[in-house]
Amino acid sequence: MRTASEITAMFTGPQVHRDVYTSPEIYRLEMEHLFANTWVFVGHESQTPNKGDYFTTQIGDQPVIQVRHSDGEIYVLFNRCPHKGTKIAIDRVGNTGKFFRCPYHAWSFKTNGCLLAIPLKKGYEDTGFSESESAKGMTPVGAVRNYRGFVFARLAPEGIGFEDYFGDSLSSIDNMVDRSPEGRLEIAGPPLRYMHKCNWKMLVENQTDTCHPMVAHESSAGTAVNIWEEMGNPEPRPPAMEIIAPFMSPYEFFEKMGIRTWPNGHGHTGVHHSIHSDYSAIPGYFDALSEAYGEERAKSILDENRHNTVYFPNIMIKGPIQQLRNFIPLGPDKTLVESYIYRLVGAPDQLLARTAMYNRMINAPTSIVGHDDLEMYERAQEGLMSNGMEWVNVQRLRTEAEDFSQEAVENGTTERQMRNQFDAWVKFMTVSMEDA
Predict the structure, then answer these.
(1) Mean pLDDT taken over the chain
(2) Domains of the chain, each with CATH number or no CATH
(3) What's this model's pTM, rounded to 2 decimal places?
(4) Which of 209, 231, 294, 426 has the most C-beta neighbours closer than 10 Å?
(5) Chain segment 291-349, per-residue pLDDT in tens
């Protein structure tokens, strides 16, 4: 078993050891420590709008249920019966009514997890059952926080608080929600799901990698741009071209967009502008936003065009098009990506139509752009098994005095956010790990 000092030595600042991406042992330690000690996205409150509604997912490798209790609050419970360990819910979504019932022995539980009833309960009299862990019912996760509709959980019963963990990075969620004239988002259907044969961290890193779009996406976005130019660049440019053409922006565009990093592994591209900055205005939208917030505030909300915001360890959101991507680890070399989109309540439907188009074009299993990235991830996963070199370089625009405890804004092609993520990776991997 690796010690805390051995884990710490796997990130040197300019380099990351390849075992971080390939080792089954490191993956198991991530599930045990990293995903237990961080605040991890579970779901959105609109996925469980009514009492008894539930949604099943996982945090790391732990199956959990997000459920709306009779008091209207959202609870997150381990998806396991305290009797024989049977999964309580196997459907992705549903409504359980007033209680959960185990399909094996019919133990039942309130929707906050408390034990409700056991068949033939007299069989447990004078056995000490009432003092057992099982008598408490389904186990809740360590902590839950609903932030503006987004539900996060920490598996560990003790650890860093929600505000201390996210800090000012929550401004990206704020901006996405504030884009609704009513200040509310609603889930818009099930996510697009897309399997990747690579380590989950490769996908997270790629969200703020701005040196690959004009290279990796030349075959897709580049082809579309060439065809459009051959047609004489007819105007108005259709929404599909507005979405795909910016992927071919030059290095200078990405350098000037900037990258902001926050402590604990969070950060975003698009400080000054992004690939979403020049989308066409949707008729009536600014008027609705101005009526809700005032014209000055509405303008400041829409002027914030952050590209990708990474919430460490494993989600990314795009505020301007109301998207969230969840990178769910299934093994050291297997990751399921779920791409959700949200409706801006009170906004014109054309905004949701554009968001759905973006999701289909970029992130679907049948997408145009996503396959470019997938090809690179899988080549990298295979290449890291080579014995030619043990280390991965993340040195671009690095300074010796780099301090990840402070917010920073830098050149948009820096790899600082990747280093920031690995600094957090070491921190939360080792916070509960004993050293030799």
Answers:
(1) 97
(2) 40-147 (2.102.10.10), 189-430 (3.90.380.10)
(3) 0.97
(4) 209
(5) 999 999 999 999 999 999 999 999 999 999 999 999 999 999 999 999 999 999 999 99
